[in-house]
Amino acid sequence: MKSSAVTRIPVLRVAPASPAEAVAHFGASLAFHADVSDVAAALAADGGDGEGDPGFVVVDSRSTESWDQGHVPGAIHLPTALIPEQAGRLLDRAVPVVTYCWGPGCNGATRAALALAELGYQVKEMLGGFEYWVREGFEFETWEGRERRPADPLTAPAGAADCGC
Q1: Which of 34, 75, 86, 158 could form a disulfide with 60 if both were Cys (CB 3.0 to 4.6 A apart)?
Q2: Cα–Cα distance between 152 and 106 in angstroms, integer?
């Protein structure tokens, strides 16, 4: 492809990174992020009741009202503002933490992950948050009990155990 043609293609106006730079970037991204399907699969492998040991703990960083509206089964409720005073009592520094908040339009899980990292915890952020947990059809808890909604075909393949990615 000619150089002049590349500059007319918006996607390629800024050249792609080198393969080595891409490996570093995407490898780092996976060190900081987990998706809801992977979190759900790990929790389900341990019975799915929050009683097993998937090797990490899930932290819901939202308000009490949000928690009551629905949360990941087995998650620990630790609003971001309370992390400095309560994390040491609720979490073990030897166990990695996966934070989540509402969804991709909210950076609450990022703020919670930062607060936990500043306290010495190994932490990842669950991409998609509670919104995508529900949209992908995973069971969640409310103050009334457990619920599950049908998977949104725009976020999860109909009838498949996972997306295959």
Answers
A1: 75
A2: 20
